[in-house]
Write a structure and sequence with these properties.
The complex is a heterodimer of chains A (299) and B (325). Chain A has 299 residues and is mainly alpha-helical. Chain A has a single domain, classed as MetI-like (MetI-like fold). Helices cover 73% and strands 0% of the residues of chain A. Chain A contains twelve helices and no strands. By secondary structure, chain B is α/β, with parallel strands linked by helices. In chain B, β9 and β10 form a beta hairpin. Classes of the chains: A mainly alpha (299), B alpha/beta (325). Chains A and B meet through α8 and α9 of A and α2 and α3 of B.
């Protein structure tokens, strides 16, 4: 009956190959580049006081609208200064703190709420599902910017307001996605198996269904990094975001819009930063999707 | 036999589905009993209510729509239908276990095999640490899984179909239940693996003296595995008998048809006989005997009055007017 004679070699083989495959991913460009970009940005945000050459709030009327160093400006301000003489590079570095922490918080909040509601909705079905999905429909149909503006006006623009405003409607996309996945999983035999061995509904949802929706959840989360930063920028641009003088990428773009023909660098560089994070998020999401697909993972 | 108390006694079980088009009586007045250590086979064609009967025993009728509307399920003297949902969960997996049809799908792809065998033990016996893993290894050993310690670390996709079905069996026996319900556990396996798996189940039964309800549409398997057989047709049990009796002396015309349609090696036949017609729509059942439209021995009474069970001997009963007369 013992058919495992040839097995030990197979196990050794796998064990030897695994470390090599683990390092392989750093050779994949669509993993490597976004990870490096995001790491630099996160580190920059954390150590902003050490890296930034100037205080982001310090104005200097003598150095107003200085162009970047490579476009004829001085070495003192690498990416130039804005109309109040504040160093653009320093403001971008400090702005990363706001922009990145807003997106992280928003993703955490919306992901948690959306996943919870999605799993409950998909698992229980019936009237609860109908109710939650109608609420989701309403959230998806509502113009998010409008709600955010409304909140900013009533609560006053602040960091909390921005996070709240974006989260308020952002969970709907998660709920929709996760509910769809759970609908598939709910009738899977392994869920029936969990019921057969006496698991409670709560345990089934938490330990048997949730790990199976982590993949799409991660993908959506990475893809929405960029989206959240864009919404935050839009809010700041409209004056409903992080109140000045705290730098955020969106408000910097907005600051420079009147001077775009004479001092393009004021909006261009924060815009570039936004673009890089959005692209990195999308690349990473794409990479994760390919990576986590079990059919591709086997290869 | 008469002195022993049955482990499971099902009386007049009725499981109905309430659909927009009407009430589907998937299980309609089923009664049977299982002795400790005994194997009862439930046979019947697709849609005869075999699976719904076994799911009803665990009170896991598909929702929404399905509901157990009547009857009694006495397990060890306790009526399972009277228990609360939380009390019922204590029975599932620990006292009554079930093996599903498809081993490919009934294991969770994100957990190792060991975790999944451990789950009912954590759930019901609150084991942890070494005691837990010893018990898990023991469960895998009962199902003859080679080198169980190493296998614990495997994920389902790293195992073959036969091995996976053994793991599913291992999950079922992990808590040493008194009753295992096996719902066509071998349909997804090929013939050699099938034979092996059945031998393991038999072996397991000898070692643990667990009672089994073996649901199948394969007469050959039922003949080999079971002590007694119940034949289901359109939501009812039409005949119950010991395996030997059922094959040698079938009473109900449906059973006779089934037995005759099994290919045999010892008799030369030109064509396999079959039963004409289709099983009835469970939505609108004809009055009288459900088999009447397809029966070769039908007479007037069959079409108006539903036949009760008639005993032909101590442990042989058939629901047919022809048997009564």
């Amino acid at each position: 009956m013992d058919v495992a004679l040839g097995r030990p070699e197979v196990l050794v083989d796998v064990a030897e190959r695994r470390p090599a495959r683990r390092w392989d991913i750093f050779l994949q460009l669509n993993f490597c580049i976004p990870v490096i970009v995001l790491t630099i940005m996160v580190l920059g945000a954390i150590f902003a006081p050490l890296i930034a050459p100037y205080d982001p709030l310090q104005t200097s009327l003598s150095a107003r609208l200085a162009p970047p160093a490579f476009a004829g400006g001085s070495e003192a301000h690498l990416l130039g200064t804005d109309k109040l003489g504040r160093d653009v590079l320093s403001r971008i570095i400090y702005g990363a703190r706001v922009s990145l922490s807003v997106s992280l918080l928003v993703i955490l909040i919306t992901g948690t709420i959306g996943t919870t509601l999605g799993i409950i909705s998909g698992y229980f079905g019936g009237w609860l599902d109908s109710l939650l999905m109608r609420v989701t429909d309403v959230s998806l149909a509502f113009p998010g910017i409008l709600i955010a503006l409304l909140l900013a006006v009533t609560l006053g623009p602040s960091f909390t307001t921005v996070v709240l405003a974006i989260s308020l409607l952002g969970w709907a996309a998660y709920a929709r996605l996760i509910r769809g996945e759970v609908l598939k999983l709910r009738n899977a035999d392994f869920v029936a198996q969990a019921r057969i061995i006496g698991c409670s509904p709560g345990r089934i949802m938490l330990t048997h269904i949730f790990p199976n929706v982590v993949n799409p959840l991660l993908i959506l989360a990475t893809l929405s990094v960029g989206l959240v930063i864009l919404i935050e920028s839009a809010l700041s641009y409209l004056g409903a975001g992080i109140p000045p003088p705290t730098p955020s990428w969106g408000s910097m773009v907005s600051d420079g819009r009147g001077l775009i023909d004479t001092a393009w660098w004021i909006s261009f560089f924060p815009g570039l930063a936004i673009g890089m994070v959005v692209l990195s998020g999308n690349f990473l999401g794409d990479w994760l999707r390919d990576r986590l697909d079990p059919r591709l993972r086997q290869i | 036999m008469s002195a022993a108390q049955p482990l499971l006694q099902v009386e007049d079980l009725r499981t109905h589905f309430f659909t927009r088009r009407g009430v589907v009586k998937a299980v309609d007045g089923v009664s049977f009993s299982v002795m400790p250590g005994e194997t009862l086979g439930i046979v019947g064609e697709s849609g005869s209510g075999k699976t719904m009967t076994s799911l009803s025993l665990l009170r896991l009728v598909p929702q929404p729509g399905g509901r157990i509307v009547g009857g009694k399920i006495l397990f060890d003297g306790v009526d399972l239908l009277q228990l609360s949902e939380a009390e019922m969960r204590e029975y599932r997996g620990s006292k009554i276990a079930m093996i599903l049809q498809d081993p490919m799908a009934s294991l969770n792809p994100v957990y190792t095999v060991g975790e999944q065998v451990a789950e009912p033990l954590r759930q019901h016996q609150h084991l942890s640490g070494k005691a837990l893993w010893d018990q898990v290894t023991e469960a895998l050993r009962l199902l003859r899984i080679p080198s169980p310690r190493e296998r614990l670390q495997n994920y389902p996709h790293q195992m073959s179909g036969g091995m996976r079905q053994r793991v599913v069996g291992g999950i079922a026996v992990s808590c040493l239940p008194k009753l295992i319900i096996a719902d066509e556990p071998t349909t997804a396996l090929d013939a050699t693996i099938q034979a092996q798996y059945l031998a393991h189940l038999k072996d397991l039964q000898r070692q643990t003296n667990v009672a089994m309800i073996f649901v199948s549409h394969d007469f050959g398997i039922v003949g080999r595995m079971c002590d007694r057989v119940a034949v289901m047709y359109a939501g009812r049990i039409v005949e119950t008998a010991s395996v030997r009796d059922l094959f040698n002396n079938p009473q109900h015309p449906y059973t006779i048809g089934l037995v005759n349609s099994v290919p045999r090696l010892d008799r030369k036949v030109e064509r396999l006989s079959s039963i004409e017609g289709q099983p009835p729509q469970l939505l609108n059942l004809p009055p009288g005997c459900r088999f009447a439209p397809r029966c070769y021995a039908v007479f007037d009474r069959c079409r108006v009055e539903e036949p009760p069970d008639f005993a032909t001997s101590d442990d042989h009963a058939a629901a047919c007017w022809r048997v009564a007369s």
